[in-house]
Amino acid sequence: MATTMLKALNKSLHDALDQDEKVILLGEDIGTLGGVFRVTDGLKSKFGEHRVVDTPLAESGIVGSAIGLAYRGYRPVVEIQFDGFTYPAFDQLVSQLAKLHYRSRGRVKMPVTVRIPYGGGIGSPEHHSESPEAYFAHTAGLRVFAPSSVEDAYSMLRQAIACDDPVIFFEPKRRYHEKTTAELLPPAPDASPKAKIVRPGEDVTVVGYGPTTYTLVDAAKAAEDEGTSLEVIDLRTLDPLDIDTVAESVKRTGKLVVVHEASRTSGIGAEICAEITERCFDYLEHAPLRVTGFDIPYPPSRLESHHLPDLDRVMHAVDTVMRHHEATEGAAK
Amino acid sequence: MSTQHIDVAAGCLPTHQLLNVDGKRIPDEELDHYLKDLKEADLADFLRDMVVLRRMDNEATALQRQGQLGLWAPLLGQEAAQIGSVRATNDDDFIFPSYREHGVAWARGVKAEDLLSVWRGAQASGWDPNEVNIACQQIVIGSQALHAAGYGMGIKFDGGKQVSVAYFGDGATSQGDVNEAMVFAASYQAPVLFFCQNNQWAISEPVALQSRTQIADRAHGFGLKTWRVDGNDILAVYAATKAALNHARHGLGPAFIEAVTYRMGSHTTADDPTRYRKSEQLEEWKAKDPIDRLVKYLHEMGADVQSYEQRAQNAADDLAAKLREAITSMEDPKAEELFTNVYAEKHEPTERAAKNYLDYLADFEGGE
Ligand SMILES: Cc1ncc(C[n+]2csc(CCOP(=O)(O)OP(=O)(O)O)c2C)c(N)n1
Ligand SMILES: [Mg+2]
């Protein structure tokens, strides 16, 4: 039976609530309404208002009280309504949640999951289309998950909730209606998510996560028609960053393009390019390239198609690394 | 007055109502004074403002349904709270609104199409805050309250005669920023008016989830001079706002108004209120409609209501037609806009990024 990412996330929360009575959901409008995207639809009526909690309108309050609940032995799963409303909770996330295990010398665990629907492309007003993942990947003590597929949405959310560290869980909201017919399987015990080669290829390694993974698969299909073979890697987690998988691929292809919606400077792409340059310097045939959102505030929606990396911009980068490659190959002959 | 529907503890502060639901004038010892300069013509203007505003709001909802706007946050039902309060301000009182205060901006002279252009996604803001003394509409709940506090501190420190006004909703009162703003304004006795439209809902959450006492009583606890008014009674809103501004303007410190009203429409065009509230509640509030109430009062006064209504209707028709034309013919912004105004001063990386992208677009369009 076909299911959507929304339903997969709903089932993941449902199964977590069902299997562990310490799991508790907190957020604005998540109870009676079922969340503005309906991710928590039906959960309050099934599990009750003390498991699925509509909170007052205060993000710092939500994350801060989740920390208190974790002290008390709960396993809170927090919903931030939209990416742009994460910032009022910034202190609680980076100075408290991230550091409590360290500060308590390992005596206090913070198994808190913070779900954030993120990214653009849905024609929204300001603050509803942000990609703030780099702030959290930059913060030691937080794990950052960013699934792209429906199956991963289900299993990685289970993993996030089961994890004894805090996990910032980014949901690619513009892909909420993506479908799959595959069965949703709980993750194997003790397995933690790693980067995945979603489409093998030989000429260029293209790396993305979340919403851009779909763009990369489209790019790989388009490139194939032009005789170029792209290896598409879905990072899945941004912390820890699975550089091994990317490096192994780049050693074969010699070329790397990293793609994300978030802005460019000091972003995830910069980190990957630096790591790969350090590890694969002798294998590289072209400087690693980034295709990203611009270094600007997220623009009004009638400009967002420029801002979001699309097929053309990805192909342009692929052409750039390939052209250089072809030119040097030609010269060698 | 029947505010018993509110599922919160009865408060210490009374709720001022100068016009009951039947449009009968109720004397108010404290506030009547602030109505003494209002003439029948002013009331007719209030009526026109509210009728035009409701029409603008309906037109915007329709434009959103037709794909002309990305989203719209209707103010249906809150016309008296917005018009009554903004009409009590001086033009140089600086206002910090939320995303729902369309009436406040429009009454200050912002064109409806400029307001809607932002909701269309065609530009980041529709007016110059320094020209109309209104900040950009704020979407992040409660942030603007602190801006109002700071502006008020500035007035206090430089000896100005203005008042700074923050508008926000009942839900916003839970945010740290709103509470911190009251602390700052009170600490410096700054001329700030906090104007809370308690429309009973924050999306799907009833006000009782935010506050177990009347919101006004909380403000009182911060040391703010506070009034609680029937927000669908334009006379009560106008008089209380005059009183509060007067208090703040005369160096007596910050003030707070809780205007008890109702969001008759959806939260935004993306919302479905049938999932969380009963239709009886809406019916109950329809009987308290702010426009009907003023009309009834004008009848009571023996005014030529028909001609006032006709005039208001004509103004509404005119605005709606022009608005529709302006929005449906509005051009999309150019790609250059992406990179303009990120910084006030020269910033080379942004310039480089702009050049790279515009060159890329030109090549692309050139068929490369
Ligand atoms: C910081 C922040 N969190 C969440 C939201 C999403 N949101 C938009 S409006 C709203 C409810 C606001 O309720 P209230 O303050 O009563 O104002 P109203 O919408 O009723 O005018 C919420 C939760 C937001 N815009 N900003
Ligand atoms: Mg409200």
TrEMBL record, chain A:
Provenance organism: Glutamicibacter nicotianae (Arthrobacter nicotianae)
InterPro entries assigned: THDP-binding (IPR029061), Transketo_C/PFOR_II (IPR009014), Transketolase-like_Pyr-bd (IPR005475), Transketolase_C (IPR033248)
Protein's UniProt name: Pyruvate dehydrogenase E1 component beta subunit
Residue ranges of every copy of the Transketolase-like pyrimidine-binding domain listed in the record: 3-178
Keyword Oxidoreductase: yes
Alphabetically ordered keywords of this record: Oxidoreductase, Pyruvate, Thiamine pyrophosphate
Top-level division of the source organism's lineage: Bacteria
Cofactor: thiamine diphosphate
SUPFAM superfamilies tied to this protein: Thiamin diphosphate-binding fold (THDP-binding) (SSF52518), TK C-terminal domain-like (SSF52922)
Parts of the chain that traverse the membrane: none
Keyword set includes Oxidoreductase: yes
TrEMBL record, chain B:
Keyword Oxidoreductase listed: yes
InterPro entries, A to Z: Alpha-ketoacid_DH_E1_comp, DH_E1, PdhA/BkdA, THDP-binding
Coiled-coil ranges (or none): 298-325
Pfam families on file: E1_dh
Keyword Nucleotide-binding annotated: no
Cofactor names: thiamine diphosphate
Annotated ranges, domain Dehydrogenase E1 component: 49-333
Keywords: Coiled coil, Oxidoreductase, Pyruvate, Thiamine pyrophosphate
PANTHER family: 2-OXOISOVALERATE DEHYDROGENASE SUBUNIT ALPHA, MITOCHONDRIAL
Protein name per Swiss-Prot or TrEMBL: Pyruvate dehydrogenase E1 component alpha subunit
Source organism: Glutamicibacter nicotianae (Arthrobacter nicotianae)
Upper classification of the organism: Bacteria, Bacillati, Actinomycetota, Actinomycetes, Micrococcales
